Amino acid sequence: MTVIAVRAENLGKAYRLYARPLDRALEWLSRRSRHREFWALQALDLDVRAGESVGIIGENGAGKSTLLALLTGTARPTTGRVAVRGTLAAILELGAGFHPEFSGRHNARMHAALFGITGGDAERRIEEAIAFSELGSFIDQPVRTYSSGMYVRLAFALAVSVDPDVLVIDEALAVGDQHFQTKCVDRITEFRERGKTILFCSHAMYQVKKLCDRALWLRRGRTAALGSADEVIDAYLEYTRARDAEQAVSPAAAGRDPALLRLVDVVIEGGEGGDPPTWRSGAPFTARVVLERSRDAGIEPGVGIAFVRNDGLVCYCVSTEMDGVAMHARADGRFEAALHVPSLPLLGGGYYLNVATTDNRSALIVYDVRERCCPFRVRNPSDEYGVVRMDHQWLGPRSGSGCD
Fold first, then answer.
1. I want to staple 212 with a disulfide (CB 3.0 to 4.6 A). Which of 55, 120, 330, 386 is the partner?
2. For residue 202, with 0-12 CB atoms within 10 Å meaning exposed, 13-18 middle and 19 or more buried, which class applies?
3. Domain that holds residue 191
4. What is the pTM for the complete model shown?
């Protein structure tokens, strides 16, 4: 039987916005409305199964933190209801619930008391949390003296110390050094393996993909997508790619003259169809580029192409200048080159191309740029993980060799 750990039904939160502080008092006195409503969240339905990890993604202002505040009870819904099965611990913002004048240790004791943990059990868990936070002697200093990194170390350590059934994390891994982030990820992974329920809000898509089974994409307070983490994240990154492309600075505004060597067309060939087109990992891939050179431009036409993952990771970049290849001069006066990849090594996910025209004698000067163009997806039927598939084989031991 499926056990639902967190359930939200028709959940919504509206805030009253006033043009000036005085209007709030005038509204109360006159009983006449002087505000406008802003719905931070509307008509959201969500069931999270016990032992499931769900990532919550979206732009700033999409309603992510509002949703977590409603789920954890720190805000009351305007519409709908929320139900949580078992104990819940949350890291909603840096230092939330800490008394700034009390020491970290005193705050830890109050935190344990809120969960009904007392006596020797409380002291044992507090000492474990202090060790995990690595705050050292600072644990006995007032919390107001802590840096943002120290705040999140203590907040995370205390949240996991109570061993909750449901753990809610809002951007906790965005602060702190790499060492502590790794510790946090390891602890979250341990929680997953123990069948705990996790709601994880982050702008780091690779963390959401690694830690979450499903993802909820919020856009302007409503559900834009809910499904497997890979599919929802790819859809979100494609949306941000398209939005960024609309807002991109033109080459002329950036001080370049694209008319000297203009990109006429960029197409990709060999996919299985779909929108965006899909390639199977290992299938042939071709990117065809057509350029037009100004008559008075003393430029030897060249082009550079970069394969970029939807999260902005440049997977591979190459150019005609790097490979010493000349573009083909067509009868219509334009120039054409086709980059062919016999076996596309990219693993599953969403990708796009960045294409730039250059002088083939020196790639230092870029003329026309088309970023985030030709979006495509790669389908990988295997369980391999990463960016690219490496040709490999497993070998037996060398004769007479052993482990030293």
1. 55
2. buried
3. 4-242
4. 0.65
Examine the domain organization and report whether 263 and 225 are in the same domain.
no
Say which amino acid occupies 343. S
Query: Looking at the 3D structure of the chain, how many domains does it have?
Result: 2
Q: Residue 220 CB: number of other CB atoms within 10 A?
A: 14
Residue 135 shares a structural domain with residue 261: no
Instruction: Answer yes or no: is 402 within a domain.
Output: no
Q: Which residue has the tokens 């639902």?
A: 4
pLDDT in tens, 197-231: 999 888 878 778 878 889 999 999 999 999 998 88
3-class SS of residue 333: coil
Amino acid letter for position 116: G
238 shares its domain with 328: no
Q: Which amino acid is at 221?
A: G
User: The tokens of 368 are what?
Assistant: 């026309």
Closest by CA to 312, choosing from 387, 365, 229, 251, is 387
Q: Residues 204, 281: one domain?
A: no
CATH number of the domain to which 201 belongs? 3.40.50.300
Nearest to 227 by CA among 55, 61, 379, 81: 55
Render 252-304 in DSSP notation, one character per residue: TTTT--GGGEEEEEEEEES---TTTTEEETTS-EEEEEEEEE-TT----EEEE
Q: Are strands 314-319 and 301-309 parallel, antiparallel or unpaired?
A: antiparallel
The Cβ of residue 283 has, within 10 Å, a number of other Cβ atoms equal to 16
Residue 394 lies in a domain: no
- Which residue matches tokens 């003259």? 257
